Amino acid sequence: MRLAFVKDMLWSQGDSLANGRLQPVDLEPEPTGQKKILVLSVSAGAGHLRAAQAICAQADTYGANITATHLDVMDYVTAGFRKLYTDFYIALISKHPAVWGYLYQRTNTARPNSTLQKFRRGIERLNTKKLSKKIALFKPDAIICTHFLPAEILAHMIRNAKLDCPVWVQVTDFDLHRMWVHEGMAGYFAANEEVACRMRALDIAPHRIQVTGIPIMPVFSQTFNRAKCARELNLDPERPIVMLMGGGAGLGSLEEVAERLLAMDQDFQLIVLAGRNLELLSALKELAARFPEKLLAQGYTDRVERLMASADFVITKPGGLTISECLAMGLPMIINAPIPGQEERNADFLLEEGVALKAIDAVTLEYRVRLLLERPEKLAEMRAKAIALGKPHAARQVVKTVLEKLTDTRYAVH
């Protein structure tokens, strides 16, 4: 089976992809008899892309009768529109998170038929004509959207009889923003029952809602030997290991956080993920020289699951994909610097379920770390709850559902 998607997996949470954009793929029609699934994402942060890649990777296990093709919508839009959706978004959430939180709330409560919303959708359609042509050329049997933008564009095409294949929507957070919901969708995949409840409250028919979890790569369903993974990283499995993640763009001042944690008097080892941020990685390596045998500075990697398997708990921003990976690995979390809006909602979910603690500032973060290091029974309780919540097979359920419903008339485009 041919998978037309980038194999360079984007594991580090929040990687902006500014220096490693996906390249457009050639959508040549596949041989007759194959089911062709098109997965559409948007490179505004790495999470939407990672969900799409997970779905494609799962489709690969179904054999030669299925072709899964992944497109980054930003490769098929105008340059100005791309800059707004990628660079501007990253700049906004890193420099002006309160503004983003305000916009998140305002757009969530805006009336879909308001003049402003109609104007916004018109601008989107004007800037995405190239995408519509690519979809028409490919003639997919089904489409799965891991971002609300392509779902919104395709909903308009369906209303105007320009698309006749079922479109599914995979929500990638433990919250539901109104911009994910559109008429004419074949169905929705929800992270949990609460998101499904919110979908029903917005008049999505119950039979169109599947509670699958958020798709993550199949490797996260495997069982790992902690001691072996730690030794591979030259870490001591007999000592506690803490993992710090904050985004490939260095969001969350990771160097400062790491230095403060390393100055604590507790005995533990710290893994810090710098993603593709080479400047941050260099600074962390200098810091590691000051704290020998205490800090592992890790750049971009496609083996983050082995790093997670080594850790006793993780300090992270609560992106939907990252926390889904952590839950699948049974990793307790300390939530640090959540983005207002979707990440705050994700954090609320984790706190309510007892799988995470929240640090509101550097002092609280240090206190939370000390608490978990000194209370192994608390850590064990959180780990058990995380394992119970994890949905490592979400991608499998998504692909299985889409294939099954292709023959179910209730899911036809209408």
Termini separation comes to 31 Å
- The helical percent reads 40-55%
Radius of gyration: 21 Å
- In one word, what is the shape? globular
Runs in which pLDDT lies below 50 for 5 or more consecutive residues are 1-25
Structural class: alpha/beta
> H/E series, N to C?
EHEHHHHHEHEEHEHEHEHEHEHEHEHHH
Strand order of the largest sheet: 2-1-3-4-5-6
Give the percentage of residues in beta strands.
5-15%
Largest sheet report: 6 strands, parallel
Number of strands: 12
Instruction: Count up the helices.
Output: 17
User: Average pLDDT value?
Assistant: 84
Structural description of this entry:
With 414 residues, the chain is an alpha/beta fold. Helices cover 44% and strands 14% of the residues. It contains 17 helices and twelve strands. The strands form two sheets. The chain has a six-stranded parallel sheet, with helices on both faces. Strands 9-8-7-10-11-12 form a six-stranded parallel sheet, sandwiched between helices. Helix 13 links the parallel strand 10 and strand 11 (333-336). The two termini are 31 Å apart. The model is unreliable at 1-25 (pLDDT under 50).
